[in-house]
Amino acid sequence: MPEEPRRQARGQRRMEQLTDAAAVVFAEVGYAKATTNAIAKQAGVSPGTLYQFFANKEALAEALAERYRAELKAAHEQAFDLSMVKLPLPEMVDRMIRPMVEVNLANPGFKALFSSGDLPDRLTAPTRALQQAVTGRVAEIIGARVPDLPADQRDTAAAVATQIFAALLGTIVSAAPADRDRWITELNRALVGYLTPLETPAHPH
Amino acid sequence: MPEEPRRQARGQRRMEQLTDAAAVVFAEVGYAKATTNAIAKQAGVSPGTLYQFFANKEALAEALAERYRAELKAAHEQAFDLSMVKLPLPEMVDRMIRPMVEVNLANPGFKALFSSGDLPDRLTAPTRALQQAVTGRVAEIIGARVPDLPADQRDTAAAVATQIFAALLGTIVSAAPADRDRWITELNRALVGYLTPLETPAHPH
DNA sequence: AGAAAATACGAGTATTTGCTCGTGTTTGTC
DNA sequence: GACAAACACGAGCAAATACTCGTATTTTCT
Questions:
Q1: Nearest C-alpha in A relative to B116
Q2: Which residues sit close to strand C, CB under 7 Å?
Q3: CB contact under 8 A, A33 and B116
């Protein structure tokens, strides 16, 4: 098995160019229909060069997914504060949503990897990693907010919330900028509506 | 432009065989990776025969989508009753959800057409038709339940509810049968949580 | 029966696509 | 400056795939 060559500065730049290009092409035509030759062309590079750095199309997608994961994590760490746990739910949800929408608007390829329905089997892995990173984050927050909630219920709630988010993300980013806030509001309502009962369990009637 | 030939009984059967086969293959590998040759083989028919009845892969998907639309409509007309409008929201939502899940379980190809992320451009049309049929139905119900709701808010709510549904549908059908009810319950909670505020507008604080 | 239309076949085609490989250039190290 | 490693090229391959077409069979109609 061939070892990873020791990358030099030029190579690092190329790899970034290539993931950038992949993001553009994925965003334009989706992962499945994106061709490696088109990605190479978009990067201003020959097909051969692409394969000098990535074993295959999938590895390229993995690298891109990993980049998004890191970016998301950074955005959240910047936007999150443990004090947020004490905010009213709608405001907290808003603060969770915004950075993710921002990351998505800044990286059009994100959606193609995060919430595309039928990707080749193997890509399920990086996609799952992305989704799971988000879900884990959400679970943390819910856990901090409702400490008495059993772990399994918390994880289920986090998974559902993430799916709702992913579903509406597409609508939000493909909407006209003027309508975007409207859809974000709806997403907020949906999440708040779903999560509120967790905070006020079993009310007497 | 060639005219549609007058189909004879044999041809009608073939067309059904072919859409059946398409459903199977779509369910197995998704629309994008489904090959027309594989569909023909699954139908026990040569590739040429497939193209005697469908101009291309897309037309086949359209026919399948149309079939699902009709099936869904029938299921709903059977399950719906105007009296349902007076039921408590959770129960009504449950009655809306169940038949759709049923149709989905009975027709594994449904999901591939209904909630797949990156389909070829033209297939957006039949897919949209399916989604819109569902959304329209939901809008009707909401309208009947909350007559005072402005039309645009009603349509927005219907669209969001449909997206939430589509998002969790995948989880529901791919879950182990034992877990299915659990996820259906969550879907119910999500929809009820989102829709409830519409029924009790602007509460005094 | 006989003609026309519909159905059926399946090897073959034109194109696409992920990826390779032989060859040449640039970069880093001593 | 010399040597090796990394980088770059791009024509082209092997495989896949949507679709065709010449031919043969079956059904329908008169």
A1: A117
A2: A 8-10, 33-37, 47-48, 51, 56-58; B 5-8, 10-12, 14, 44-49, 51-53
A3: no
Residue type, A186: E
Report the distance from CA of residue B33 to the C1' of nucleotide D11 in Å, as an integer: 28
Cβ-Cβ pairs closer than 8 A, A with B, add up to 86
Question: In three state form, how does the secondary structure of A150-198 look?
Answer: CHHHHHHHHHHHHHHHHHHHHHHHHCCHHHHHHHHHHHHHHHHHHHHHH
Question: Looking at residue B118, what DSSP letter applies?
Answer: -
Residues of B in contact with A197 (CB under 8 A): 189, 193
Cα–Cα distance, B95 to A112 (Å, whole number)? 33
Residue at minimum CA to C1' distance from nucleotide D9: A46
Do B11 and B53 meet the contact criterion of CB atoms below 8 Å apart?
Answer: yes
Question: pLDDT category, B110, cuts 50, 70, 90?
Answer: confident
3-state secondary structure of B78: helix
Confidence of residue A80 (pLDDT cuts 50, 70, 90): confident
Q: What does the pLDDT average to over B4-23?
A: 96
Contacts of A156 (CB under 8 A, 6+ apart): B182, B186
Answer yes or no: do B186 and A31 touch at CB < 8 A.
no
Question: Residue holding tokens 């065989």?
Answer: B17
Are residues A33 and B164, on separate chains, in Cβ contact within 8 Å? Answer: no
| Residue A22 CB partners (closer than 8 Å, separation 6+) | A34, A39, A60, A61, A64, A109
B61-85 pLDDT per residue, tens? 999 999 998 998 888 887 777 778 8
Residue B25 reports pLDDT greater than 90: yes
